Amino acid sequence: MFIQTETTPNPNTLKFLPGRAVLETGTADFPDRDTAGRSPLAARLFGIDGVARVFLGADFITVAKPDETDWAVVKPLVLGAIMDHYTSGETTLAPGAEAAASGDGDSDVVAQIKELIETRVRPSVAADGGDIIFQGFEDGVVYLHMQGSCSGCPSSTATLKHGIENMLKYYVPEVQSVEAVS
């Protein structure tokens, strides 16, 4: 098994591409060790000193580290853990655990916002090992949750304000601004 790695705009995250499906649908974000119980892969990665966050996408795994940790130390351990996971035959998510997915029953404006995020924003940020999840729309403000390499990335504010906000305002006149939520 050959696992490729890619840098992301966030210097504290690396994107790992195992060359096979990671999740069949949706994404899964594990902001800390305590949330990793529903994923044997995430739990294995959090067993490594220096792993601060794990994000799973369709065909990639994004791992975050703290500022003081060096990738030269952590990266080989992460590669080994991913290899061990796939050779063990374990599932990525525990039986019954589901990845995040979008909901039904939205207003026309919310449906349009979600469609734009799904088709124009998410593929772009996934290329950098991240994801942006719609959280809500209220009083002209779109609330988005940044995950993976987008979470804590120095350029995420610029992406949010200059890229996503401008695009949504152009296509959906009801949108006045975009805000990140935790």
Q: CATH topology of the largest domain, what is it called?
A: Ribosomal Protein S8, Chain: A, domain 1
Q: Rg from C-alpha positions?
A: 17 Å
Q: Count of helical segments?
A: 4
User: CATH superfamily name of the largest domain?
Assistant: Scaffold protein Nfu/NifU, N-terminal domain
Strand fraction: 15-25%
Order of helices and strands: EEEHEEHHEEHE
Structural class: alpha+beta
The largest sheet is: 5 strands, antiparallel
User: pLDDT below 50 for ≥5 consecutive residues: which ranges?
Assistant: none
Overall geometry:
globular
Please list the strands of the largest sheet in the order they lie side by side.
Answer: 1-2-5-4-3
The overall pLDDT, averaged over residues, is: 87
Oligomer: single chain
CATH architecture of the largest domain: 2-Layer Sandwich
Distance between the termini: 35 Å
CATH class of the largest domain: Alpha Beta
Number of domains: 2
By DSSP, the count of extended strands is 8
**Helix content range of the residues, please?**
25-40%
Describe the structure.
The protein is α+β, with helices and mostly antiparallel strands and 182 residues long. It has 2 domains: 4-88, Ribosomal Protein S8, Chain: A, domain 1 (2-Layer Sandwich); 108-181, GMP Synthetase, Chain A, domain 3, CATH 3.30.300.130. The protein contains 4 helices and 8 strands. The strands form 2 sheets. A 5-stranded antiparallel β-sheet has the order 1-2-5-4-3, covered by helices on one side. It has a 3-stranded mixed β-sheet with strand order 6-7-8. Helix 1 packs antiparallel against helix 2 (71-88). It is globular. The N and C termini lie far apart (35 Å). The model has no long low-confidence stretch (mean pLDDT 87).
